[in-house]
Structure formats: C-alpha cells, structure tokens
Amino acid sequence: MALALRWYYVTVTIVPQPLSGDAGQYYACAWNLLHHGIFSSSKPGSPLVVPDNYRDPAYPLFLALWIKALGPGRISYGTTLLCQALLGAETVGISMQICRRWLSIRWAAAAGLLMAVWPHSIATNDFLLTETLSGFLCALGILLWVKACQHKSLGKALASGLTLGMAALTNAVLQPFGILLAILIAWRAPALRKTCLILALASAALPLAWGLRNVHLPNTDIHASSKGRALQNLIQGSWPTYHSAWRTSKLGSEAAKIEATADLNAMNGEYEQLLSSPLKGIKVVMQRMQQHPVTYLTWYLFKKPYQLWGWEIEIGQGDIYPYAVINSPFQVHVAWIALAAICHALNPWLLWLSLACLLMTWREQCARANTSLPSLSIISVIALLAFVTLIYCILQAEPRYATPFRNLEIALAFTTLANLSARWSAYQGTLHRQKALHETH
C-alpha cells in the first residue's frame, strides 16, 4: 500500500519549480561533482567553482548517481522521484519490523497502515530534498542495530554504524547520534559494550572522513560553510516570530512586508554579529531573551517541540508542501482530501501518545534494569526521536524536518495505545474474575 500510494503520487503530482531553494543547491552540488569533480554549491555554469561544505554530501551524491546513469533531464528526474517513492515505502516496512520487536503483529500492522498513508511521508517523495533518504537510512540503521543487539553481532553493528554515518552525511544534525546511542546502550546493557564500541566507531567514520576533507578546504566565506548555516539556524530558531515574518515577507501585503523585513534584518544583524564576534553575538542574543524570559522559556520548552511535530510546513508553500504543487491528490481527490483531514486531526494526538510512551518507558526503566531486546529496541527509537527533537528545538523547529521520523513517532504512539489496551483488558479480566468469585460465594 505504501509503495502504491507513493508511486501514484509522484507520477501525477507536478512541482512547477523543482529546483528552487534547497533543492536547487543539492542539484548544483550534484552537477559540480559530475562536471568538475568538486563538491560545491556554486550554480551550474559558474565561471569559478569553489569547493565548500555548506550542504551535506550524501543526497547530492544520490542525485549525481541518477544523473550520471541517465543524463540530466526529465528521465533522471522522474527516476529519482520513483526511487524516492520506493525508499519511502521501504521505510514503512522497516519501521514495522522495528516496532514488531515489542508490539504484537496486529498492533504493528495497525501502525504500519497509518505510516503507509501519512500525507507528509507521501508528499515528501516528490521533492528533491533530503527527508526521504535520511528517513530511510535512519530506520535501516536502527533496524540493523536492533539485530546487532539481538545476535550480539559485530558485523551488524558495523553495518548499523556505517548506515547511521551515511544518515549523518545526509543530515548533519545526526552526526553525534550513533556515538550517543552506543553510550546509552552500553550503560543499560554492559554485556553489549563491545558491540556498542563497534557502533560508535563505525558511525563516526564517514562524518570524520568528511570533516577531514573540510579541514583542507581553502579559506572560504563562512557564510558558505556548514558552521555558518548552523549559526544562522540557531539565530533564526531563537526568534519566535521568524516563521511568521518569513511567510509575511513572501505572501503579505506591502505594509506587512515592510514590518516583516525589519524583523528579518534584525535577525540577520544578530547572525552577522555572531559570526564577527561570537562572544558579543551571544551577549546580544541573551540580552534580547532576558527582556522576556518567560516568553522564551515557553518558546523553547513547549512551543518549539509542538511546532516541530506539528502539521503546517512553515518555510514553504504551507500545509504538507515545501514547494508549490499542481494536481496533488490531496488537493483534487475527495478520498485523499478526507484522508489528509483525518491525519490532520490525529496529528496532535500522535505527539501526546508518543510523549506518554516515553514517560512510561522511562518509568519502567527506572523501576528495574530491563535489558531485554524489546526494551533495548524501544529505547533506541526513543533516543533517536528525543535527540532530533532536542537538536531542532535548539536550532530551528520546522515540521518538514520531522518528516523522516514520522514513522517512528507513529510506532511510539501505537505502543501507548497497545499498553492502554492491555491494561484495560487486564482490568476487565479482574472485574470478570471478581464477579465470578462473588457468584460462586
């Protein structure tokens, strides 16, 4: 079902400007790799191609493989989208295999059904963005890690680490995750320390190689570096008004655009200050936050996590679309529109049910040292979701960034539902036994 929905979606939905924004930069990196042997986000055809590390390398390499095999144009573009549809469907199957470690087949199938039809996970396959690939690699890495724990297999731990390392080269915020996961599991299950060591080393290998490459880059503008991009996200994410200001600057009235542009200029001023003098830049940001401490405390602790796992994509077209689309089934077919409406209504509940799963798992782990495979499996999934939530809430929280992890969020939500169902059944059984005992007396 997941494959059929995604395959149909990418074949009928048109993205009029598929190479705008981030997608254009990924394509530029792929183009420069093929034509100059240089990883650079310089525009294709630029007279000077300067190597940089502004974008992460794995997704441009993914694009470059299809362009190299099929040539630039509609064929390679269409094949890339169909390949992403396949990867998206595989991610659903892999996520079901992961949650099958602790859920019954019925609950895992129910979770998989929602994963298959979730609109964000379907729509993202039609854009030349990293979400599909990073989601696939994260799910595969976790599955391999679960199997490594099950069999105490160093080979599977190595494969898991390399897969998570590739995920980190697709999305840089994931770079420390493999090491942190290894530390967490080694602490909970000392018998797996050797396996955890392999995971940590393997997950660090590819990002370390990429980092060594970046050390030898010629001195380039910091604005064109990954450090500059991270600092920019840090400043933008510290302004509660950033998303609304960005959208108003693009879609608002002329008067509203002037006010929004002033806010964006103030953000850029803090960003430039942070680049030129980090200490002074941090001081400026802290002074701004100290003027409204409760507002910013609420922003970071509550509003940003809720925004990250929300529905409406802020930086982009809105709804579930980073870019404008034509003929999307979610816009023109009644059944698909109804599906999107149902999922939209369910979205807040998924967040609260996932949070409840985290709290219940934490309570169980504190109550007793459980190192069984189901326990380690769900801990690994919770660790991933908690890690990405923390990082994006420090930087910039945008629902598009949560798309690779929606399947695992659904798995945790259904875990809470399964636990509640089991407790209700146990309660009903207790009542039935008490009634039977009373009738016997």
UniProtKB/TrEMBL annotation:
Bilayer disposition of the protein: Multi-pass membrane protein
Main subcellular location: membrane
Keywords for this protein: Cell membrane, Glycosyltransferase, Membrane, Transferase, Transmembrane, Transmembrane helix
Compartments in which it is found: Cell membrane
Transmembrane spans: 103-121, 127-146, 158-185, 334-362, 374-395
Statement: the UniProt record of this protein carries the keyword Membrane: yes
PANTHER family reported in the protein's UniProt record: MANNOSYLTRANSFERASE YKCB-RELATED, MEMBRANE PROTEIN
Name of the protein in its database record: Glycosyltransferase family 39 protein
